[in-house]
C-alpha cells in the first residue's frame, strides 16, 4: 500500500517576463450583455453624448444604456426591404448569399445616427432619431439613402468609415477596394482603380491643423503581396492619406482624389530580418495636437506572433511632403503632387501635377517605427486584434500612454508605456467564452472601455484599483498609472486626472528602479502566513503549490537556507518531491522577489510518518486560486 499525493493545476509554458502580463485579472465591476449567435454584432458605435452603445446585428439595432450598475437594452427592428429580399432569393435560390439586412455601419450624423445595412444585396442607409425611431417622410415612410458607396454588399468584405465635418468617408475592402467621400455636403470623390490592390482596411483617422485647409485624413490597410515567395510575407501594410478639402482635379481627376498618396508601413528594424507586415488594427492618439500625435499599430506574422509599434504622425506627415515617388523617373512637378491647398485651388491644379499623381501615388519611402523596433513582441499562442490608447496623469502629474489591446482569445492586455520600457500590467478576462475581440471603444473622459466579441459586449473601468488593494506593496508594484496608495485611508485609489490635484499625496512608482523605499514609511512588510501542516509517508509524492501573485516576480522555495527548484505553470511555482528531489521534512517557504521587494507567499511544515495516510486537504491561497490535494490509498 503506497499513498499517492498529488495536486491539480493548469499546465502551460512559461514565457519571458517582459513578454507576458504581470497579473491575470477577472474584472469585478464590468457590465455586460450577450447576444444570440445568429444575431452577433456586425457594427458597434458609442455615443459619448448619451453614453449609449448602438449595436448593429441581423435585421436589428440594439440600443444599450449603461448606468453605474446596470444595462437597459432596447431592440429596434430594421429588416431588409421586401423587394430586395425577393430579388435576392430569386437570384440566389441556393441561399449561398445572405438575403438579410446585416447592419455594417453606424455613424453619428448631426443629431441623428446614420445606420447602413446590406439590405439583401442592395446596401441602404436609414436615419435614427434620438436612438428611438427611424426618421420618416410626410407619407410616414422611412427616409433612406443608397449605401452602394458606403458599405460593401458582402459581410466578408470589411469597411472602415469616418465622419468629418458633415461628410462621410468610406474605405471599402475587397477586389474593388476604394476610398471615397461617400456622403455629405461636399462633392463625392474616390480613388482610381489602379491605386488600390485588393485592400483590407482596418482603421482611419483625421489629423487637424491650425489652418483647416491643411487637415489630412489617413486610412490604414493591408494589400496582398502579389510577388511574395514561399518565405516572404503574404501581406504588406500600407497607409493612405488625402486632404480633407480635396474637391477632385480637372480635367484629369474630375471625380477622383487629386491629393491621394500612400506609403508602406513596416513594424521592425530596416536592417534586421524580424519584421511584421500584417496590420491588424491602428489607433491614432491626437490629444496633444498633430505634431505629438502617435500612431499605434498591432501587427501579426505568419509564424503566429504579434507586435506593437508606434509612429510619430508628425514624422509621417513630413515624409508625405518630402519623399520621392515610387517608379517616377521625371522630376517632381511644382506644386508638389499631394499638397493640401485651399478648396478653390483644386480646379486649377496644373495638368502635369495631376498626371504625375495619377501615375505615381506611392511614396518611395518605407515607414519604420520611431524606435526602429517594436515596443514588444507577444509570443504566447494569442494574437492582438485591436488597440486603443489613453494618456494618463500619474501621481506626479506626468503623462503616460496606456494601451488596451484585445486578443483573439477574448483577453485585454493593459500596457504601460513608461520612459524606455513597455510593461504588460495585466491580462483582463471579461468574457465567458474565448471569442476574438471584434471592437474596442474608449471613453477616456468617463473612464470606461467598451469591448465586444461576436457574442458579448462589456464595459470595463479604466482604473480598477480594487484589484490591488490588499496592501501598499500590491498597489505600488502593479505599476498602474491609474492607481496609487492612500497612506491615511490604507487603500489603493484612483489617481485624479485633474492637473495639480491632490494626486501627489498618493504613493506610486512607475519606473523600473528599486521600489523598496516607496512603502517603507506607509506600512511594514506582510506578516508571514500561518504554516500549513502536511503529514505524509516517506514513500509518497507530494506537490506544494505556491500561487503566482505576479508573473514578473522570481519565485524561490527554501528550507534551512537550501534552495529547491520548482515547476512553473500559469498559476503556481510548484515544489515537487520525487526521485530528483527526495522527500524531506521541515518548513518549506516560498518567496517572491520583484523590483527589490521580497514577500513570503506561503509556507508548509512537512512531517514524515511511517503510518498509513488517508486524508483530503484543501489549500486556499491568497489570490483566490484553489488547490486540491488528495491522498489516495493504494490497496
From TrEMBL:
GO biological process: axon guidance; neural crest cell migration; positive regulation of cell migration; semaphorin-plexin signaling pathway
Coarse class of the protein's main subcellular location: membrane
Record keywords: Developmental protein, Differentiation, Disulfide bond, Glycoprotein, Membrane, Neurogenesis, Signal, Transmembrane, Transmembrane helix
GO cellular component, one term: plasma membrane
Domain of life of the source: Eukaryota
Domain Ig-like, first and last residues per copy: 524-602
GO molecular function, one term: semaphorin receptor binding
Signal sequence interval, chain numbering: 1-17
Domain Sema: 22-462
Pfam families referenced in this protein's UniProt entry, alphabetically: PSI (PF01437), Sema (PF01403)
Compartment(s) where it occurs, according to its Swiss-Prot or TrEMBL record: Membrane
InterPro entries, per the entry: Ig-like_dom, Ig-like_dom_sf, Ig-like_fold, Plexin_repeat, PSI, Semap_dom, Semap_dom_sf, Semaphorin
TM region(s), chain numbering: 616-634
UniProt family annotation: Belongs to the semaphorin family.
The protein, known as: Semaphorin-1A
Amino acid at each position: 500500500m503506497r499513498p499517492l499525493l498529488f495536486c491539480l493545476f493548469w499546465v502551460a509554458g512559461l514565457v519571458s517576463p517582459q513578454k507576458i502580463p504581470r497579473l491575470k485579472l477577472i474584472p469585478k465591476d464590468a457590465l455586460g450583455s450577450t447576444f444570440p449567435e445568429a444575431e452577433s454584432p456586425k457594427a458597434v458605435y458609442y455615443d459619448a453624448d448619451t453614453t449609449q452603445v448602438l449595436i448593429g446585428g441581423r435585421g436589428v439595432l440594439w440600443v444599450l444604456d449603461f448606468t453605474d450598475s446596470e444595462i437597459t437594452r432596447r431592440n429596434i427592428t430594421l429588416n431588409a426591404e421586401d423587394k430586395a429580399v425577393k430579388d435576392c432569393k430569386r437570384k440566389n435560390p441556393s441561399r449561398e448569399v445572405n438575403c438579410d439586412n446585416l447592419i455594417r455601419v453606424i455613424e453619428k450624423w448631426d443629431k441623428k445616427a446614420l445606420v447602413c445595412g446590406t439590405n439583401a444585396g442592395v446596401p441602404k442607409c436609414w436615419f435614427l432619431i434620438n436612438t428611438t425611431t427611424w426618421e420618416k417622410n410626410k407619407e410616414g415612410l422611412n427616409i433612406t439613402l443608397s449605401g452602394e458607396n458606403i458599405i460593401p454588399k458582402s459581410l466578408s468584405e470589411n469597411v472602415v468609415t469616418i465622419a468629418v465635418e458633415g461628410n462621410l468617408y468610406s474605405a471599402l475592402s475587397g477586389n474593388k477596394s476604394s476610398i471615397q467621400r461617400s456622403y455629405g455636403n461636399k462633392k463625392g470623390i474616390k480613388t482610381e482603380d489602379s491605386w488600390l490592390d485588393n485592400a483590407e482596411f482596418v482603421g482611419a483617422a483625421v489629423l487637424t491643423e491650425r489652418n483647416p485647409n491643411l487637415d489630412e485624413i489617413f486610412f490604414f490597410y493591408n494589400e496582398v503581396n502579389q510577388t511574395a515567395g514561399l518565405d516572404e510575407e503574404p501581406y504588406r501594410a500600407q497607409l493612405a492619406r488625402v486632404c480633407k478639402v480635396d474637391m477632385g482635379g480637372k480635367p484629369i481627376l474630375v471625380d477622383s482624389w487629386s491629393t491621394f498618396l500612400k506609403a508602406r508601413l513596416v513594424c521592425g528594424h530596416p536592417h534586421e530580418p524580424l519584421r511584421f507586415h500584417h496590420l491588424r488594427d491602428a489607433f491614432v492618439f491626437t490629444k496633444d495636437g498633430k505634431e505629438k500625435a502617435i500612431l499605434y499599430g498591432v501587427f501579426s506574422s505568419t509564424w503566429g506572433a504579434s507586435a506593437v509599434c508606434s509612429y510619430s504622425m508628425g514624422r509621417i506627415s513630413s515624409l508625405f511632403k518630402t519623399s520621392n515617388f515610387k517608379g517616377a523617373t521625371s522630376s517632381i512637378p511644382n506644386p508638389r503632387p499631394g499638397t493640401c491647398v485651399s478648396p478653390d485651388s483644386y480646379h486649377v491644379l496644373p495638368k502635369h501635377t495631376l498626371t504625375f499623381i495619377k501615375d505615381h501615388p506611392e511614396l518611395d519611402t518605407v515607414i519604420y517605427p520611431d524606435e526602429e523596433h517594436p515596443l514588444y513582441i507577444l509570443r504566447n499562442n494569442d494574437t492582438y486584434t485591436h488597440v486603443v490608447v489613453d494618456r494618463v496623469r500619474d501621481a506626479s502629474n506626468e503623462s503616460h500612454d496606456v494601451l488596451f489591446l484585445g486578443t483573439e482569445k477574448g483577453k485585454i492586455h493593459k500596457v504601460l508605456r513608461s520612459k524606455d520600457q513597455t510593461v504588460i500590467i495585466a491580462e483582463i478576462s471579461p468574457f465567458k467564452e474565448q471569442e476574438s475581440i471584434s471592437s474596442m471603444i474608449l471613453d477616456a473622459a468617463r473612464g470606461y472601455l467598451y469591448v465586444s466579441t461576436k457574442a458579448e459586449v462589456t464595459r470595463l473601468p479604466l482604473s480598477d484599483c480594487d484589484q490591488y488593494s490588499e496592501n501598499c506593496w500590491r498597489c505600488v508594484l502593479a505599476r498602474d498609472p491609474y492607481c496609487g496608495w492612500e497612506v491615511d485611508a490604507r487603500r489603493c485609489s484612483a489617481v485624479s486626472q485633474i492637473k495639480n490635484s491632490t494626486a501627489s499625496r498618493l504613493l506610486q512608482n512607475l519606473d523600473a528602479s528599486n521600489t523598496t523605499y516607496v512603502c517603507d514609511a506607509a506600512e511594514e512588510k506582510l506578516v508571514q502566513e500561518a504554516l500549513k501542516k502536511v503529514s505524509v509517508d516517506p514513500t509518497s509524492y507530494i506537490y506544494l503549490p505556491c500561487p503566482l501573485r505576479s508573473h514578473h516576480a522570481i519565485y524561490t522555495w527554501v528550507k534551512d537556507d537550501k534552495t529547491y527548484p520548482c515547476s512553473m505553470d500559469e498559476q503556481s511555482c510548484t515544489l515537487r518531491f520525487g526521485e530528483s528531489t527526495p522527500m524531506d521534512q521541515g518548513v518549506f517557504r516560498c518567496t517572491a522577489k520583484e523590483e527589490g521587494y521580497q514577500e513570503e507567499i506561503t509556507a508548509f511544515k512537512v512531517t514524515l510518518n511511517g503510518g498509513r495516510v488517508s486524508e483530503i486537504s484543501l489549500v486556499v491561497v491568497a489570490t483566490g486560486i484553489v488547490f486540491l490535494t488528495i491522498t489516495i490509498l493504494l490497496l
